[in-house]
Structure formats: structure tokens, C-alpha cells
Amino acid sequence: MNFRSLRDNFEPDCADDSGNKRLLPEVVMLPPCLKTCFVFSAQFGTSPRKKHSAEEEGVQGGADVHEDFDILEDSEVEELFQQQHILTKVGSEDHRVLVVHPDVKWGSKKPQLTTAELMMAEAVGLVNTLQNWTVLDKVILSTKAPDRRTIFGKGNFKILTERIKGKPQITAVFVNVERLSPASERELEEAWGVKVLDRYSVVLHIFRCNARTKEAKLQISLAEIPLLRSRLKDEVAKLDQQGGGSRYIMGSGETFMEVQQRLLKERELKIRSALEKLRKKRQLLRSQRKSREFPVVSVMGYTNCGKTTLIKALTGDVKLQPRDQLFATLDVTVHGGQLPSRMTVLYVDTIGFLSQLPHQLIDSFSATLEDVAHSDLIVHVRDISHPETLNQKVNVLNVLKNLQIPECLMNSIVEVHNKIDLVDNYEQSEPDAVPVSALKEQGLEELKQRIEAAIVKSTGKHILTVKVELSSAQLSWLYKEATVQEVDVVADEGTALVKVIISNMRLVKVRFPQSTHSAA
Ligand SMILES: Nc1nc2c(ncn2[C@@H]2O[C@H](COP(=O)(O)OP(=O)(O)OP(=O)(O)O)[C@@H](O)[C@H]2O)c(=O)[nH]1
Ligand SMILES: [Mg+2]
Q1: From CA 139, how far away is CA 102, in angstroms rounded?
Q2: Do residues 486 and 467 make contact, with C-beta atoms less than 8 angstroms apart?
Q3: Which InterPro entries has this protein been placed in (predicted)?
Q4: What is the pLDDT, as a whole number, of residue 91?
């Protein structure tokens, strides 16, 4: 018996004690491959048929979940997202870039688990992610003290300067360090006569180009505040040298610096309060999802490892658009999918991680990542074909630790080795990892089974089949309290075998016979 006929057959049973017609299980608006099945909501009510679609809960569809947030005007967000003049140095123009990687060979600043060549490759990848930006030249130069203003010692600095001067086509130099001080940036720009960028400004620029939703735009604007602050200090220091920065502005009783700082503070407060509004909405969506008992699976991993592709393969959501680009996904989006036992889960697509991503950048995205701490399971996707796959794993786990993810979630992470199609003779090095190719849709059934087992464990759910008397209220109780997966009516007995997924808490209340009981 299929679910549609079930729904038709059992409609008369769905009246509550007061005689009101109860809500029937609704079709959840899931991706096309799932549309044929019904998800029986635990939501019964006395109100007229109120549709509880997954879309209402922020489940996609593909369209951007946060676009539905109507609590903030577009113009309000756009105003806050407008690039500030102190930051326009990255601007909208195209760039021909020289990438320089300072290689620290000794001491505590020497990077572990990676090489200068791999770090250079990642820096080049960042530039190539930007449309119309090209890498014209690249060079690795050693340095003992990357913190000094000119990054390099005299000899290497001279070599670099000559190289830049010898290529007049170069419009910008990307120094692959986390953050340059404004004074250092200014000194280098004066010496080289071109724009000088660090990792923070390049990543921020990528974020700016990829931001689609209000939340992403606000988070980026927030991440820019520290940059604005340090640049402001530098500008004022420059003005002071010319004898102007600390002067009072006529009639205001404030110096130029004080006015600018006040404006910046006001801007920061506006952004934070706008983000807080979105956060409240997010909390609401989260609690709605919880009350519907859809388990939530957060899909995390290094940028470009294939998170979006994997969710697309698991859910069939054709609107998802994986891209060979760093930070293609900047917004947390939620997509419904089904596990082997027909349990519906919500996959959360998240922003990717990057090594040496400045903390302030991560902090500004922490509200987005708040959802992760509230999920039932984390799936950690790794690009197993990447030469730095191990380093990337360490990086992701470190960020997760810093996000204060509950220990039980950290201990139950399902690790996925993605892109096995790109590895010749792939051999599983870590027995607990699940090998897949999200692109070629290989290994997905095994992965779904692993996810299901982990979800059942983490949520304390049970999958069981119970026998119900059709003349009693047992069936409607199950519809209300559990996820009904299958109903087999034994017509001459007046009974039905009902396969359900039920939480531990509700299981205690089940008083009718269980024919099979698989606490999976
Ligand atoms: N060959 C191969 N390519 C894959 C596989 N999975 C993903 N890709 C490719 O890897 C690139 C990145 O995929 P995405 O799914 O956008 O990666 P992501 O982790 O969501 O990236 P960000 O959102 O930028 O962090 C795309 O070009 C995908 O087609 C796979 O299993 N095999
Ligand atoms: Mg993505």
C-alpha cells in the first residue's frame, strides 16, 4: 500500500478528542527525487489545514533559505555592505598579480604538515578564484622574520623589488601572510608602486564577490571592521605627520580620529544588531525543525572538498550549484534527504575552511556556524585526492574544536573520503572513513547507511514495527508521536503492521505489541 492510499484511507481516523479534524500528514516539499514519498509530520492540530512544508522551515528547494528573511530591508543591508573608502584598495578592478610566499624554514613560525610549494599553490588558487584576476608571476622567498615590516631581509627584499619593477604589467602583489600591518602595507606599496594584499584582504574580497544573502553580506561587513580600524589608525598617523589628524573638527568638539572612530563603532553596532535579528530567526527555524524531529546533519570540510556536490548527490537537489572555486558556499543552506529506512534528514551545507584563515574572519561567521553545534551529526568531507588532505583534516578539526562543538558530536563525526575517482588505486587508509565519489555518485548507499546508524545512535531513536488495532487510536497516536514509514494493513484481522522511527522518550509510552524491534 502506498502512502497516498494510506492517507486517503485513514483520513476519517484523524479527529482529535474534541472532534476536530486533525491535520493529516503533509507532503514535505523536498527535492524531486523525494517528492513521491510522504513524510508524516508529527504535527497534528485543531486549526484548519496548515501546511508545514520543509521550505517553511528553511529547507531548500535550492533557493536561498535566508532570502526569506523579511525582517531586514534590502536597502538596510546594502547600505551596511557598501565598501568603505578605506577598503576600496582591492576595488572592483581586475588585477594581474605577483604572488609571493614568504618561506619560514626555522623556528616556531615554520608551518607544520605542509610545504612552501603547497602553500603557494593554495595562494594561487585563491587569486584564480577571482574573476578577471590572473597570476602573472609567483615566487617563494625565504625569510627568518616574516613579522618585520618588509617581510624579507635586505637581500631578498631587493631581489623581489627588482622582479616587480621588471614586470610593469603587475598591478598587485599578494604577500601570502595572514595579515600585514597597515604600516607594512604602506611601506611595501611605496617601495613597489603597486597594490599590496594579504590573505585577509584577498579572502575578504572573494567573500564579497560570492556573498548572496543578507546574512553573508552582514558577516563580511563585520569582518571588515578590524581592517577599517587598523587602516583608520594608519591614516590618522599619516595625517598627524602632516599636522592634521588630531585637530578638532570645527564646532563638533571631536577630532577627526574621534569622529571616524565613533562612526565605525556605530556601523559595527548596526551590523551586530542586524545580525542578531537574523540569528533570532535562525533560532526559530532551528526550534521548528527540532520540534518536527528531522535530524540535522551538518556537512563540513575544507573549501572545495565537495560538500555541496555531496549534498546534491545525497538529496537530488538539482538547484545546488557546486563550483570549482574556493568559498563557493558562503551561506548555510538546508536540504532535505532520505536515509535507507526512509527517515528524512536535513543536510546543512556550510562555508568551507581554509588554513590560516584569520580568526576575526571565522568569528564573524560563527553565528552561521552556530547551527553546527545544534546538529545531530557532523559529516566531515575530505578531498582525498588533494596533496594536502591530511593538513586540511587537521585544520578542520582544529576549527571545530575552537567552535566549541559538544564532545558527543565531535566523537561521532562521520568522515568521508571524497573524490576517490581522482585517486589511482585508492586504498582506504582509515578504516572508519567512508570512501565516495560525490560527482560519480559512488559509495552513497554505504554513506547513507553510516549516517543513519549514527543518527539513530545520537538521537536515541529506534526503528521498529508495531502491530496496531485499526479500531483504536493507536495509529493516529503513532502518526502524532513518531515517523510512520510503512503501514501494512491486515484487513481480515482489523490490524496493521506499522514501521516507525520513534524516539527513546516516546518509545516508553508505546503499550501495544511490537512485532519486530530494531533499535538499529
Ligand atoms: N572528480 C571529482 N570532483 C568532485 C567530486 N566532488 C566534488 N568535485 C568537484 O570539486 C569542486 C568543488 O565542489 P563543491 O561541491 O563546490 O565543493 P565545496 O566543498 O562545496 O566548496 P566550497 O563551498 O567552495 O567550500 C567542483 O568542481 C566539483 O565538481 C568528486 O567526487 N570527484
Ligand atoms: Mg559549497
Answers
A1: 9
A2: no
A3: G_HFLX_dom, GTP-bd, GTP-bd_M, GTPase_HflX, GTPase_HflX_N, GTPase_HflX_N_sf, P-loop_NTPase
A4: 58
Alpha helices for 213-358 (secondary structure H) = 214-241, 256-292, 307-315
What amino acid is encoded at 519 in this protein? A
ipTM confidence: 0.99
Nearest CA to ligand 1 atom 9: 306
**Which atom of ligand 1 is nearest to 352's Cα?**
25
Do 458 and 375 form a contact (C-beta atoms < 8 A)?
no
510 has pLDDT over 90: no
322 close to ligand 1 (CB < 6 Angstrom): yes
- What's the pLDDT tens digit per position in 213-246? 788 888 888 888 888 888 787 777 777 776 665 5
Length, in residues, of the chain: 520
Q: What is the pLDDT of residue 67?
A: 38
- From residue 228, give the alpha-carbon distance in Å to each of 194, 296, 379: 20, 37, 36
Dist. CA 337–CA 123, nearest whole Å? 35
Q: Which atom of ligand 1 is nearest to the CA of 309?
A: 15
When pLDDT is averaged across residues 186-194 and rounded to a whole number, the result is 93
Letter string b/e over residues 429-438, b meaning 16 or more CB atoms within 10 A of that residue's CB: eeeebbbbbb
Which residues, chain by chain, have CB under 5 Å from ion ligand 2? 307-308, 328-329
- 137 SS3 class: strand
Asked whether 306 lines ligand 1 (CB < 6 A), one says yes
Nearest to 143 by CA among 185, 104, 198, 184: 104
Cα–Cα distance, 412 to 20 (Å, whole number): 43
Helical pair 214-241 and 366-373, crossing angle rounded to 10 deg? 140
- For residue 345, the SS3 value is strand
Distance CA 161, CA 110 (A): 24
Lowest-confidence segment of 47-51, 202-206, 252-256, 392-396 by average pLDDT = 47-51
CA of 195 to the centre of ligand 2 (A): 30
Task: State residue 256 phi and psi, 5-degree precision.
Answer: -55, -45
Residue 386 Cβ inside 6 Å of ligand 1? The answer reads: no
> From the CB of 161, is ligand 1 less than 6 Å away?
no
Give the three cell numbers for residue 153. 631581509
- Say which residue the cell 530591508 belongs to: 73
Q: How far is CA 207 from the centre of its chain?
A: 13
Residue pointed to by grid coordinates 631578498: 156
Instruction: Give the β-pairing of 195-197 and 172-175.
Output: parallel
Q: Which of 106, 110, 169 is nearest to 137 (CA)?
A: 169
Distance in angstroms (rounded) separating the CA atoms of residues 297 and 303: 18
DSSP conformation class of 15: B
- For β-strands 495-503 and 483-490, DSSP reports them as antiparallel
- For residues 473 and 347, is the Cβ–Cβ distance under 8 A? no
442 lines ligand 1 (CB under 6 A): no
Query: At which residue does the C-alpha cell 553580506 appear?
Result: 217
More confident: 446 or 148: 446
